[in-house]
Write a structure and sequence with these properties.
By secondary structure, the protein is α+β, with helices and mostly antiparallel strands. It has 2 domains: about 50 residues; about 220 residues, 2-Layer Sandwich (Muramoyl-pentapeptide Carboxypeptidase, domain 2), CATH 3.30.1380. The protein contains 10 helices and 7 strands. The two termini are about 30 Å apart.
Amino acid sequence: MQRMRKRTNLLRALLACVLLAAALSPAAPALAEDDEDLEISIIELTEEQNPDESELLWSFPVALDEMVPEYVQLANKHMLLSKDYVPSSLVTAKQRKADKNGVNTNGGVLKATGAAMQLQDVCLEALVAMSEAARADGYNLYLKSAYRSWKTQNTMYYNRLKRNNGKDDGWVSKPGASDHQTGLGCDVVPRSWRDKSMNEKMASAPECQWMAAHCHEFGFILRYPEDKEEVTEINFEPWHMRYVGIPAATYIMENGLCLEEFHDQLNAAIQEFLDWGGDPAIVAPFIQVSAEEE
C-alpha cells in the first residue's frame, strides 16, 4: 500500500510541475488546447500505473488468480491432511474405449488393473488429455493408482511397517501425508510395468521420460523428483504425477522444484504480501495448517 501511494504521489507531483511550467510559459495562451491534452495524457498515465492493489503487492511469479488453493495444497509428513478430508469432486476413471480409428470415445484412460479408481474431475480430465497426447507420440500410459482415503493409507502404511520390522523405508506415506489423499495424485506407468512392482528403474522407460518432459503442459508435475529426496523425504518415483494446474506446474518444472520448495517460495510471497499491507482475505485460502495443529 505504501509503495502504491508513493508512486501515485510522484505522478501527481509530476503533473503539477508540468501544468505549472505550461502556465508560466510565454506561449501558454497559444498552447491551451495542447495543455489540456497533456493533462488528460498524464491522468491516463497515472491510471495505467495504478493496477489492482493485489497485483501490485503480489511478487510471486505465478499470479494469485492463476492458482487454485486446493490444487496446490501440500500433503506430507509435516503437513498432514485430516482424517475427514475427502475431495469434493471425485469421479471414477473409465477404461478407455476407442473407435476403429483409435479415437477415444468415452473420455476414459488405459487402466493397469480392473480396480475402480477415482480422481478429482479436473485431474482426470488433464490425465485423459495427457494420455491422448502421449498416444499421438507413440506412447501408452496406464493409470495404476489414484485416490486413496486416509483409512486406506493407514492400513497400507502399517502393513508396510510390519513387513519391514517397524522401519519406514520411504515407499509408503503415513496416513494424512499421502499425496493420493488429495485426489490429485496418480501413479501412471508404461505398459511393460503394469504388473511389476514399481521402482526407480522405471525412469529409463520412454513413457516416463515423455511424462517428465511434457507433464507440465497438462498441469502435472513429477511429485517426487530424483534430486529432491532429501526435501520430499520420499524416494524417487518417476511414475507419480500430481495435478497443480498449468501455470504452477510450468513454473515448478521449468525451475526444477518439488512441491515442498514451491510452497516455501509461495509462503514467503504471502508473508511479503501481508507485510506490504495486502488484504489477508486474498491469500488466506493458500495458507495451510497441518491436521496435527487443528
